[in-house]
Specification:
This is Glucan endo-1,3-beta-glucosidase GVI. Belongs to the glycosyl hydrolase 17 family. It holds the Pfam family Glyco_hydro_17. Keywords: Glycosidase, Hydrolase, Signal. By secondary structure, the chain is an alpha/beta fold. Strand 1, helix 2 and strand 2 form a beta-alpha-beta unit. The longest helix has 15 residues.
């Protein structure tokens, strides 16, 4: 009966034009040797009304702790598993039977992501096959969870102005196949979008206030559309690229975005707090982006904790919380 309920909820979401794709979540990473136990993490999430998380790989202790919590979970497939999953349908079935089936009655899986930021790259050609085999395995197991992949802005050859958004020649064949799969299934594409890196990569042409949602008096005009923050411009450039390969009906989930609190000149606690709280206000407003107005964009903040096994500098300092679960800065999560 519980599997039937999951199936009916999934179908209802997509029949209502993906109306279930909304809200704020957080990325929960594991690259630290001093992180709290999964049970304590779940308690923290519930205390802050964080009801959506993304994890990058299946971990039995984490999935067990999430059981019965009501927290929705995007579950990642490790990049190194993609080749096997793409080439062997039985491997995909084993993956599902090991990492999904034992938890399906108690964990609210909302998406399975076949890899993270492997396009462009040497294993990019395995993504679609892995997605297809995982989708078939999930359906065979009566667990029709959406399957997608997470991409970065590196898939684009052009992103400015947003209407010129276009996939690079290298990734276009891969993205055409993935886009066709997502459009046919009515599954979203997952996008990792960081105005922080755009700002630090070109500080002369990317004003800090434009990157922080902090108000920009001039903004950017793109035909009849007007952009007052970089986040919307980045998202719409990917929407434009999708449209150019037949993906006008494909929605997106922002699977990662955030701002570090230390590590370089722009990475301060004040800027991180400004970005994240302005982001939450923006994406939960229901205003959407100029290219897709009126669509609340499900968005996952990177990341829950500062993780000390990441490279030194900004990479260590994206956390909303320290490993002892004290706040790096306060975030106004929706009630």
């Amino acid at each position: 009966m519980e599997k039937l309920c999951v199936f009916l909820l999934t179908i209802a979401c997509f029949l209502s034009n993906n109306s279930c794709v909304r809200g704020i979540g957080v990325n929960y990473g594991f690259l630290g040797d001093n992180l709290p136990t999964p049970a304590n993490v779940v308690a923290l999430l519930k205390s802050r009304n964080i009801n959506k998380i993304r994890i990058f790989e299946p971990r039995a202790d984490v999935l067990t702790a999430l059981g019965g919590s009501g927290i929705e979970v995007i579950l990642g497939v490790r990049n190194e598993n993609l080749q096997e999953l793409a080439s062997d349908a039985t491997a995909a079935a084993r993956w599902v039977n090991t990492n999904v089936t034992p938890y399906i009655s108690s964990v609210k899986f909302t998406c399975i992501t076949a890899g993270n930021e492997v396009i462009p790259g040497t294993i990019a050609g395995n993504v679609l096959g892995a997605m297809q085999n995982l989708d078939a395995a999930l359906n065979a197991a009566n667990s029709p969870i959406p399957v997608s992949t997470a991409v970065s802005m590196q898939i684009l050859a052009t992103s400015f102005p947003p209407s010129n958004g276009k996939f690079s020649d290298e990734v276009t064949p891969v993205m055409q196949g993935i886009t066709g799969f997502l459009a046919a299934k009515k599954f979203p594409l997952l996008l990792n979008a960081y105005p922080f890196f755009a700002r630090t990569g070109d500080p002369t042409n990317v004003p800090l206030d434009y990157a922080l949602f902090a108000g920009n008096p001039t903004g950017i005009n793109d035909g009849s559309l007007h952009y007052v923050n970089l986040f919307d411009a980045m998202v719409d450039s990917v929407y434009s690229a999708l449209e150019k390969v037949g993906g006008s009906t494909v929605d997106m989930v922002i699977s990662e975005t955030g701002w570090p609190s230390a590590g370089n000149t722009d990475a301060t606690v004040e800027n991180a707090q400004t970005y994240v709280n302005n982001l939450i206000s923006h994406v939960t407003s229901g205003n959407g982006t100029p290219r897709r107005p009126g669509k609340e964009l499900e968005t996952y903040i990177f990341a829950l904790f500062n993780e000390n096994l990441k490279p030194a500098g900004v990479e260590m300092n994206f956390g909303l919380y320290r490993p002892d679960m004290t706040e790096v800065y306060h975030v106004n999560f929706p009630a």
